[in-house]
Amino acid sequence: MTEPQETVETRGNERVDLIAQDSSGDGKPDVWVSDTDGDGKPDLFQFDTDGDGKVDITMVDLDQDGNPDAIVDGDGGHPPTV
Prior knowledge:
Helices cover 0% and strands 28% of the residues. By secondary structure, it is mainly β. It is globular.
């Protein structure tokens, strides 16, 4: 049985992926940088660390100061759109 993942608060309810990058060269995105409030600045950062195509770590920067306000395992309730 899979444990439920923690849901993290973001700045808004929309998601625009500013970056969906394949850093491992396997043809699948493994880094996502997203804007959730429409200001064009990233506040949601997600990483696939094991190459399975699923988010393993989510970081949220609510005040957009470059320091994460929350770091959780999994997608934090915000699965990537790409």
